[in-house]
């Protein structure tokens, strides 16, 4: 009986060490569920993908693919585009492919994403954001460079 308990203890310890190694050594990729963000102002410029999910006023400009969703159904949207094929999906998403212009969204639970070139994102409010590509960003507490691997800030 004691031998079975020792084997179980050894197996449990090995599983714990393996799980720790996997979590420490594995690369991390940001997603909408990753914690990060805060309250204040974010300014980001670069190329790649920039998204913000939360509340406040968010302005993006550049060219590429723009995606917007108003989860609370209370947002105001001002989209000024010289190009872009707009599509409204039944689940609430709005997408502009070939977007060139500026979009400003104000709401209590909004998601806005621009993937492409010459991306500028300014967000005043509270929420989460991810920047992936190359560029610079600043908040009231930090500044730095975007990375190719998504980084939640």
Helicity, in percent?
A: 10-25%
Q: Please state the structural category.
A: alpha+beta
The helix count comes to: 1
Residue stretches low in confidence (pLDDT < 50, at least 5 long) are 8-36
Strand content: over 45%
The geometry reads as globular
CA gyration radius, whole angstroms = 20 Å
Average pLDDT taken over every residue = 79
Number of beta strands: 5
User: What is the string of helix and strand elements?
Assistant: HEEEEE
The profile of the biggest β sheet is: 5 strands, antiparallel
Q: How far is the N terminus from the C terminus?
A: 51 Å
Can you tell me the number of structural domains?
A: 1
Describe this structure in words.
There is one protein chain. This protein is an alpha+beta fold and 153 residues long. The chain has one domain. 16% of the residues lie in helices and 63% in strands. It has 1 helix and 5 strands, in the order H-E-E-E-E-E. It has one helix at residues 2-25, and strands spanning 38-70, 76-88, 93-138, 143-145, 151-152. Strands 1, 2, 3, 4 and 5 form a 5-stranded antiparallel β-sheet that branches. Strand 2 (76-88) and strand 3 (93-138) form a beta hairpin. It is globular. The termini are far apart. Residues 8-36 have low confidence and may be disordered.
